[in-house]
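Researcher: Structure prediction, please.
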Amino acid sequence: MSRVCIVGAGFTGAVIGRELAEAGIASLIVDERSHIAGNCHTERDAESGVMVHRYGPHIFHTDSERVWDYVRRFGEFKPYVNRVKTTVGGKVYSLPINLHTINQFFGMAMSPAEARAFIAAKARMDIEDPQTFEEQGMKFVGEELYEAFLAGYTRKQWEIEPSALPASILKRLPLRFNYDDNYFNHRFQGMPQDGYTRIVEGILDHPLIELHTNCRFEDLTEDFEHIFYSGPIDRYFNFDLGRLAYRTLDFEMIRADGDYQGTAVMNYPDSDIPYTRIAEHKHFAPWEADQMEKTVAFREYSRTCGPDDIPYYPVNLVGGVDLLKAYQERAAQLKNVTFAGRLGTFQYLDMDVTIDRALDAAAAYLQQRAVA
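Model: Predicted structure follows.
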């Protein structure tokens, strides 16, 4: 009996495999890495005991009750609020930009109404329909806050002028006229008590799922009923139209005793500092942080993704979508292949959206199969 092939053992592949398995459909899930959970992979650091997010911080947040209920089927989530700090010009501020940030930056003590009027006077209201990151930033907070908190960080993160990036990147960021420094607005927020890898292990734990790590899709010879592909869409086509642009990350480890920086994430927007942020991973598990005598943190450097690097972020340039459209048109012609996940769809997707779309992709396939 033929089975389904699922490429990638991150959340996308695991969720699709589990949904199909519970419907009685067997699948082979392959991942070329030596581990599961993709870029969400977590593991205990042997020296410190800290649960490390190997590919950078992942905080679970969602407004979807379906997704929240789904992930908690496979492990306990502890409460966690993401409170990001940023060092600008030698001073520490809170993010996202809120009333405390505004008052501290301008040396004032404004009320919410006063701050709202103050920022409105600084904002570029002549920009009616922002198309670029820069235009959105100027309309969003005005030149001073934009240059201090957003422009430099963005240049380092993307190595592209903000005027060449789409406004949609900045539309994700909130601006608050109160003292709320919870980075996310979502109803459900938390961290898996035993790490994301344990969650994905639970999702994959089904007799109809066969898992192969250290296995490339290109090396398979079996004929499959259907393929769910969560790798880079341009790689599926052997890059024959050219390579899509991605950003990758390098991490520089810091080991220390006690508490290194006093918070989970400290951003560094200043242009004279080469890294974008430092993440101290014990603070992602506050329920156990005080038990850790040692700590581990990582400086994060963003750069262009080369052929042998791990792709993290799709680069969507203003007006630069022709190559992507060409690949998407080719993908649409394939009857037995579904492209999914961040890399398969060439979109920046948070974990909750990834899971939600994986559930939808599995449901669509099951419905299509039922009427075939």
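Model: The chain has a mean pLDDT of 95.
Researcher: Thanks, that helps.
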